[in-house]
Amino acid sequence: MGANAQWDNVSNRYLYTNDIIDGKPVCVRLDLETNTAKAFTGPKYDVAPDGKSVAGPDLRYVNITQYGYAVPDPPDGEPNQFKKEQMDSQGLWKTDLVHNKTRLLASMNDFYNHAVPEDRKFYKDGVYYTFHTKYNSKSTRIMQVFRCLFNGEGRHASLFTLNTDGSDIIQCLTREHWNQKARLGGGGNHPNWHPDGEHIIMNTIPTWLGYKDMMLSMFKYDGSDFKVLTDRFMGSGHPSIEPHSRYVVTDAYMKQTYVVNNKEIPIRLIDLEKDAEHILCTISNNVGNEGKMYSDEGGSQFKLDPHPTWSRDYKALCINGAPKGKRQVFLIDISDVIS
């Protein structure tokens, strides 16, 4: 997962990934026309849709909060951890691909200082980590998952957004609202930009609105306009939405038995206009871990999520799967279903 191969939205010429060069994880751009590679000075979690920059955390320090998304652990097998004194020198890094210059866009303490007072009080003595970094469709704003560990344990996540120049840092989902627990298990997870570049879609448990289950939710980049998208269907997996806000697509985790009723993962298409659900297909994701997500559950850190993703014209989906235990990538034509 740390390699994180990705296209930009400009052309099919460049493919972006990460590599370790001189002991440091950095973004590498593969030119498919000239068969050459260019290494940059900073890491990549996401590439801006305009192809001008990449952003993300220092990939040497991600495994401690999200195993398998970073460089391999040191020889002793223990993930790298930050020290409290690094909170001003680590955080969200941005690399200008035109000039190949990397800068710290926002430090850990910058995020901390923009949290609500209750969260600052809670986070005060912890050590902070950045994880999931995503540009919006306009390449104007970045979403950043923020986590806090105490003695190397926990997550205590909240969500921030900021302008791509590092200004206007806003905590758009507080620690309290992220970390509510669902009646059937699980907490808030998997924020993703709406194609409009203004809203975020995410699985939450909005107990403050009277809900007890995981629900598909949406809110603006500043935290306003929070709403549950459907009362009929619970959230699961990795949700994303198309530009007209009619269709949500998602998958599920094996433990989400309220939507998984066999040993294969459903690919769910939810029609918000008709309040209806289509199970497009089911697919095995067992790569030897029997559905277990983490090594401490007796599974493998090399898990595989179907993680459905829209095509650029929103008429097809790309998913991962492992029929007979072999990892593969599949395309699903849904043009007839959503017409």
Helix and strand topology:
Layout: E1 6-7, E2 14-21, E3 24-31, E4 36-39, E5 46-47, E6 53-56, E7 91-96, E8 101-107, H1 108-113, H2 117-123, E9 127-135, E10 141-149, E11 158-163, E12 170-173, H3 175-178, E13 189-193, E14 199-204, E15 215-220, E16 227-228, E17 240-241, E18 247-250, E19 265-271, E20 276-283, E21 309-310, E22 316-321, E23 328-333, H4 335-338
Antiparallel strand pairs: 1-2, 2-3, 3-4, 5-6, 6-7, 7-8, 9-10, 10-11, 11-12, 13-14, 14-15, 15-16, 17-18, 18-19, 19-20, 21-22, 22-23
Polypeptide structure, described:
With 339 residues, the protein is mostly beta strands. The protein contains four helices and 23 strands. The protein has helices at 108-113, 117-123, 175-178, 335-338; strands spanning 6-7, 14-21, 24-31, 36-39, 46-47, 53-56, 91-96, 101-107, 127-135, 141-149, 158-163, 170-173, 189-193, 199-204, 215-220, 227-228, 240-241, 247-250, 265-271, 276-283, 309-310, 316-321, 328-333. A four-stranded antiparallel sheet has the order 1-2-3-4, with no helix packed on it.
